[in-house]
Amino acid sequence: MEKPAVGRSAATCGWRALLLPQLNRQSLYVYGSEVAVEQECVRQLESGVFVIHPFSLMRSYYIMCMMAITFLNLIGIPMEIAFLDENSGLAWEGFNVFSDTLFLIDVALNFRMGIIAEDGEEAILDIKQIRSNYLRTWFVPDVIAAFPIGYILLFADLEYHNDDNPSKTNKMMRILMFVRILSLIRLARVSRLVRFFNEVEKVSNANLEVVRLFFRVLSLFMMIFLLCHWNGCIQYFVPMLEEFPTDCWVRKENLMNSTVIVKYSWGVFRALSQMIALSYGSMDAPTNYVEMWIVMVSMVSGCLMYTVLVANATAMIANVDPAAKEYKSKMSHLEHYMAFMKLPPELQLRISNYYQARYGGKWFDEKDIMSTVSSALKEQILAAMCSRLLRNVPMFQNRDENFIGSVVLKLRYEVFQEADVIVRQNVPGDRMFFIDHGQVLMEADSYERELCDGDFFGETCVLTRGKHLATAKALTDCRCFSLSCDDFQETLEGFPDVKKDLEQTAELSSDGGLV
């Protein structure tokens, strides 16, 4: 959950706190720490200039609101032009005026909207730089998209309904039709929708790959929906401009006096039929060159839709679960190697099963991961996985936390398959084992014993470098951690008191060691 980066200072600023950067994953990634985000808040406050920070709470809510308004405009504008005609109603005209007003305000706010630098490492809050960047990039398209057609339509409709002169009424109807066609420029707001999606992905707290993937899928399907929606509206709009000739599809389907939903449904049906090359959307082929061009445009847009969909789906699939893909690649190389070396089928199966048990279908370079994290994080990772195993061993109980942490760093992960002999009796031992998961059978001349999760064996070997007193065989696939004798002795050098105590323990238990 996001929270303000500034404590008392933000609380005393009232509404200005909404303009300051919030503590979230993205801001912490850019600035590095909470202190750095705090300093960024102080920098903005000390500037004394009204600027909306790109990581602010107001910016996040503003983007969400504008995305919703923009999407509704991109749906409603084509429907208004194609189907509603002069019967759009006061509610829709009010929404048009509201949207135009909001987009004009958006143009003005963009001169006060902080931007993220191209390197993504800082936010630009200087008014001159913001103004210069906006004028060079999106100012002209935004002004065109925000042209207040809604106000013109509202005043023209009022004049049309208040005038009883037939000649003036006909003239006003032609003007209204021209203005409605002119309102197509508002579809340029689709660029705003794309930019809003990009900003949501960059600026919000959505820097997790799953969330990014969700926004990519959502934006892709929204664009496909808009393409089908616009195409369906065009199917009806073009015959309407021609005043519905006798051979047009609208007259053939007897839709002249149908409801808007029926007309729209038929238009979208024709559009989808042509886009997926299923049919012409009706029983007959195009009967005039205008319909023929509409069909060709629909087919081409359908091809483009397929291309974009396949390209994006391929990119998404390629970026999903890279660890599993790397594992499959490694297994493919392994299979070619085993075939080339002509290994026996039984051995090939055991090798494949080992990889499955060791990596679980995911390939990670554990050494590389551990080498890139800090020593503190490495200790915490290994402690989370193995500290409980160490606490089960008597010689590690009630020991100093620093000693336990040092031992944890020396542990190595190993996997053994069913029937594998882990150690053999009377063979010199060089490490001890901690069973994380699995079952192990200890076999000696005089006894047998089964070990399971959380058990250990070979502890006397790391203390005395003696021989194993029993054979350890895996009864199931076993995941273990091992501690080598050399690593343990190296750790003890830094803890002389512990070393002395363990040497005394080794002398007492040398005759009764388990393995």
UniProtKB/TrEMBL annotation:
<dbReference type="InterPro" id="IPR000595">
    <property type="entry name" value="cNMP-bd_dom"/>
</dbReference>
<keyword id="KW-0812">Transmembrane</keyword>
<feature type="transmembrane region" description="Helical">
    <location>
        <begin position="61"/>
        <end position="84"/>
    </location>
</feature>
<feature type="transmembrane region" description="Helical">
    <location>
        <begin position="177"/>
        <end position="197"/>
    </location>
</feature>
<protein>
    <submittedName>
        <fullName>Potassium/sodium hyperpolarization-activated cyclic nucleotide-gated channel 3 isoform X2</fullName>
    </submittedName>
</protein>
<dbReference type="InterPro" id="IPR018490">
    <property type="entry name" value="cNMP-bd_dom_sf"/>
</dbReference>
<dbReference type="GO" id="GO:0030425">
    <property type="term" value="C:dendrite"/>
</dbReference>
<feature type="transmembrane region" description="Helical">
    <location>
        <begin position="217"/>
        <end position="239"/>
    </location>
</feature>
<keyword id="KW-0630">Potassium</keyword>
<dbReference type="Pfam" id="PF08412">
    <property type="entry name" value="Ion_trans_N"/>
</dbReference>
<feature type="transmembrane region" description="Helical">
    <location>
        <begin position="292"/>
        <end position="320"/>
    </location>
</feature>
<dbReference type="InterPro" id="IPR014710">
    <property type="entry name" value="RmlC-like_jellyroll"/>
</dbReference>
<keyword id="KW-0633">Potassium transport</keyword>
<feature type="transmembrane region" description="Helical">
    <location>
        <begin position="138"/>
        <end position="156"/>
    </location>
</feature>
<dbReference type="GO" id="GO:0035725">
    <property type="term" value="P:sodium ion transmembrane transport"/>
</dbReference>
<dbReference type="Pfam" id="PF00027">
    <property type="entry name" value="cNMP_binding"/>
</dbReference>
<dbReference type="GO" id="GO:0005249">
    <property type="term" value="F:voltage-gated potassium channel activity"/>
</dbReference>
<dbReference type="InterPro" id="IPR005821">
    <property type="entry name" value="Ion_trans_dom"/>
</dbReference>
<dbReference type="GO" id="GO:0098855">
    <property type="term" value="C:HCN channel complex"/>
</dbReference>
<dbReference type="InterPro" id="IPR051413">
    <property type="entry name" value="K/Na_HCN_channel"/>
</dbReference>
<keyword id="KW-0813">Transport</keyword>
<dbReference type="Pfam" id="PF00520">
    <property type="entry name" value="Ion_trans"/>
</dbReference>
<keyword id="KW-0406">Ion transport</keyword>
<keyword id="KW-0407">Ion channel</keyword>
<keyword id="KW-1133">Transmembrane helix</keyword>
<feature type="domain" description="Cyclic nucleotide-binding">
    <location>
        <begin position="395"/>
        <end position="500"/>
    </location>
</feature>
<dbReference type="GO" id="GO:0003254">
    <property type="term" value="P:regulation of membrane depolarization"/>
</dbReference>
<keyword id="KW-0631">Potassium channel</keyword>
<dbReference type="InterPro" id="IPR013621">
    <property type="entry name" value="Ion_trans_N"/>
</dbReference>
<keyword id="KW-0472">Membrane</keyword>
<keyword id="KW-1003">Cell membrane</keyword>
<dbReference type="GO" id="GO:0030424">
    <property type="term" value="C:axon"/>
</dbReference>
